[in-house]
Amino acid sequence: MTPAQYWHCFIGIQFREWLRFWQQRTRFASALVRPLLWLVVFAAGFRAVLGISIIPPYQTYITYETYIAPGLCGMIILFNSMQGALSMVYDRELGSMRVLLMSPLPRPFLLISKLLAMGVVSVGQVYVFLMLALFVDVEPPLWGYLAVLPALILTSLMLGAMGLLIAMWIKQLENFAGVMNFVIFPMFFMSSALYPLWKMNEASPWLYWVCQFNPFTHAIEAIRFSLYLEWNPLAWGVITGVTLVLVILATAGFRPQRTKILSSKPA
Amino acid sequence: MTLEARNISFRYGNKPVLKEVDFTLTSGGFHALLGPNGAGKSTLFGLLTRLLALQQGDILLAGQSLKKQPADAMRQIGVVFQQNALDLDLSVRQNLMYHGALHGLSRREARSRGDQELRRFGLLARAGDAVRELNGGHRRRVEIARALLHRPSLLLLDEPTAGLDVTSRRALNDHVRRLCKKDGLTVLWATHLIDEVHQQDRVLILHQGQLLADEKGLEIYSADGSKSLAETFESLTGSAP
């Protein structure tokens, strides 16, 4: 196969994902309701409870809305990735997965292209969310919107690969409710999305360390720092490493017989 | 193109699903894979399409092992699955172009080949319609058109008439037979419905994972003195076709 054929394939996969996004734009718009509720309602209520001191990357006192906006960006990607992975293995995307796997190109290439395509759609949603966040005065520097892009893409790839691994290997989590209770919520709450980790350290040192070992924390910190044009080597190091490992495991370990791709009967 | 299945066995856990299945499909022929539900047809398709990994035995396409040359093999195979594999919300043309891209075709090339196939299938006028608006028979035709887009020499169809009414089933079956004759395609048509099989077809009867017959339909039933293939099938498998 030639590089041009790889390119056509990659673009074809991306294009299809956007077509589907466009077909189902109302569903994607309603997916923004969740993070917006957190931003507008939860943050307003919590602002009074939680005082935030000046912590990097911020150079001044910030509102709670400003603090949780990067965490909510992560939340959008987290929900989408898990939902996307489940649909690849168990439902809506099964037909397209059958077609995908009939391609003569190497399977890891196809799966990474697919995860990236789903990720790019999530990233699009994150940008819409950030635009809406301007209304509650979350105003990162203009260049921050561009600087945050690699962090968003890497996060979506990391969580997409994680979702694929979970959907394929943990049979008990084949429905979204299970994933929400055992993956999404623990990852979200045990991270720096809603509260700075020094606060967590004051409350419970062992929870602090759980949060530190949660790659989602580092994804959020990479998003937060990039959005404010600061460099966070620890966060970047962690998410790059974790993404690499997860992508290799998810693609090399991909087994159609563990999914419903071959038949609609339980795998 | 010939396809050789050599001594294939497959098990899910401890449950054997295919037992030493061995056959050869001759180039340019229409072959019927006949078996009751649960005979192992879909598992065999899974192996032929690389969705399942071979546990024992080998599959050769034009003499090349599927294990060693997967990319070459996949270029030669067109597949129609039992379950729908079309995006219902996308248009017919968009579905075809997606498949073209997956086979490394440029957008222009994929579009022109897609339109060519649709014209041949009498569906060009529906190219811009969402698949959802098509009836079952037309959807299956689109799936066949798509499977042929990259010009494979082997067409695998796993119960392609599932869910269709009698008229659409017959039309689809005739359609594939014409393609087979005209283009020299090698076809493997899996079904549990005996009326989709002609007595001149090479018939492979699969039952409980074992290949019970592999001959022309006519020869299969005349050999055991039955009046029809249906009768032989019933006595071999114990299930009414």
The appropriate CATH architecture of the domain at 3-85 and 156-237 in chain B is 3-Layer(aba) Sandwich
The secondary structure category of chain B is alpha/beta
Helix content of chain A: over 70%
Strand content of chain A: under 5%
- Rg of chain A from C-alpha positions? 19 Å
Task: Write down the CATH class of the domain at 3-85 and 156-237 in chain B.
Answer: Alpha Beta
- Shape, principal axes of CA atoms of chain B: globular
Q: Explain this structure to me?
A:
- Chain A is an all-alpha fold and 267 residues long.
- Chain A has one domain.
- Chain A is built from 13 helices and no strands.
- The model of chain A has no long low-confidence stretch (mean pLDDT 90).
- The longest helix of chain B has 18 residues.
- Chain B contains eight helices and ten strands.
- Chain B has a domain of 165 residues: P-loop containing nucleotide triphosphate hydrolases (Rossmann fold, 3-Layer(aba) Sandwich).
- Chain B is of the alpha/beta class.
- In chain B, a hairpin with a 2-residue loop joins strand 9 and strand 10.
- A six-stranded mixed β-sheet of chain B has the order 6-7-8-3-9-10, sandwiched between helices. In chain B, strands 2-1-4-5 form a four-stranded antiparallel β-sheet, with helices on one face.
- The chains are: A mainly alpha (267), B alpha/beta (241).
- At the A-B interface, helix 1 and helix 5 of A face helix 2 and helix 3 of B.
Question: What is the element layout, followed by pairings?
Answer:
The complex is a heterodimer of chains A (267) and B (241).
Chain A: H1 3-23, H2 25-31, H3 33-47, H4 64-89, H5 94-101, H6 107-133, H7 142-147, H8 149-169, H9 176-189, H10 197-203, H11 205-213, H12 215-227, H13 233-252
Chain B: E1 3-12, E2 15-25, E3 30-34, H1 41-48, E4 56-61, E5 64-65, H2 70-76, E6 77-80, H3 92-102, H4 107-120, H5 136-147, E7 154-158, H6 166-183, E8 186-191, E9 202-207, E10 210-216, H7 217-223, H8 229-237
Parallel strand pairs in B: 3-8, 3-9, 6-7, 7-8
Antiparallel strand pairs in B: 1-2, 1-4, 4-5, 9-10
